[in-house]
Write a structure and sequence with these properties.
The protein is of the alpha/beta class. It has 12 helices and 9 strands. The strands form 2 sheets. Strands 1-2-3-4-6-9 form a 6-stranded mixed β-sheet, with helices on both faces. A 3-stranded mixed β-sheet has the order 5-7-8. Strand 2, helix 1 and strand 3 form a beta-alpha-beta unit. The chain starts with 14 loop residues before the first strand and ends in a 6-residue tail after the last helix. The model has no long low-confidence stretch (mean pLDDT 94).
Length: 267
């Protein structure tokens, strides 16, 4: 059995980590290189994931100094060879983030390129600022976007636009990204984290088990449906939260009807 990960006792350098009761906020913290993703950051993200797999919470990811992530660290990437590629250093952590039990919110500002964009694609929600510049310029560097963009992006924005980004180096501004549903909200930079917390609050008002199971069912392969939906619903039908929340709904509905029938009693 894996040892319990206590984020409060871990030492981070490439990340700033703030754990709250129902969520964890992670800031990518390498401002000197525009938050480029290096091995240290990957290792620290694995630590965060280990904690969230043991104690599921919503994850909010953002960057410092008006940048999400400018990409992978080119100095490290320049030295990587075939065996490094086969290890899937970035793709492995992005898959792990995508599979976290609770939703992941990416709050994007400024550059969100290459590996930074692929990290954002792995999130369940992407919100941004007017300063967002998101895309995958890897082919211009003689490589491909191999950490998720080559297959996630088509699912997110459709094949024509995905090919513009992946094959022709198109970088989207905030309005273009929102029009393509790659991001769903645009906020002033000073309000970005507040907006992410507002979204986390909305998620927090749902039943946590229902959210976890719905996320798993949503990402199940097509051939697993409808059986997986029925099995998942069977689990939720037996949960105490289902009985409590439905009874609360019925009680509120009954109270509204009673107040409507006897408005004087509601004063």
């Amino acid at each position: 059995m894996a040892a319990t990960v206590d984020l409060g006792k871990e030492k981070f350098s490439a990340l700033l980590v703030d754990e709250k009761d129902d969520r964890v906020v992670v800031l990518l913290n390498r401002p000197e290189v525009k938050n480029a993703i290096d091995q240290q950051m990957v290792d620290e993200l694995h630590t965060v994931c280990a904690a969230l797999e043991q104690n599921p919470k919503v994850l909010i990811i953002a960057g410092v100094d008006g940048v999400f992530a400018s990409g992978a660290d080119i100095a490290q990437l320049r030295e990587r060879r075939r065996d490094d590629a086969l290890q899937g250093i970035n793709s492995t952590i992005f898959v792990r983030i995508a599979k976290l039990p609770m939703p992941v919110i990416a709050a994007l500002d400024g550059y969100c390129l290459g590996g930074g964009a692929e990290l954002a694609y792995a999130a369940d929600f992407r919100i941004g600022t007017p300063n967002v510049r998101i895309g995958n310029p890897e082919t211009g560097l003689g490589i491909l976007a191999a950490a998720g963009a080559s297959w996630r992006l088509r699912e997110l924005v459709g094949e024509p636009l995905a090919k513009q980004i992946l094959l022709a180096g198109l970088v989207l501004g905030a309005d273009e990204a929102k029009a393509a549903n790659l991001i769903t909200e645009i906020h002033d930079p000073a309000e970005l984290l507040d907006a992410a917390h507002s979204l986390a609050n909305r998620i927090g008002r749902q039943d946590p088990l229902a959210v976890r199971i719905t996320k798993s069912v949503f990402h199940a392969p097509a051939e697993a449906h409808p059986l997986i939906d029925q099995l998942a619903q069977g689990i939720l039908f037996e949960s105490q939260a289902k009985f409590d929340r439905m009874q609360a709904f019925l009680d509120r509905n009954a109270a509204r009807k009673a107040n409507a029938a006897n408005p004087a009693d509601g004063k």
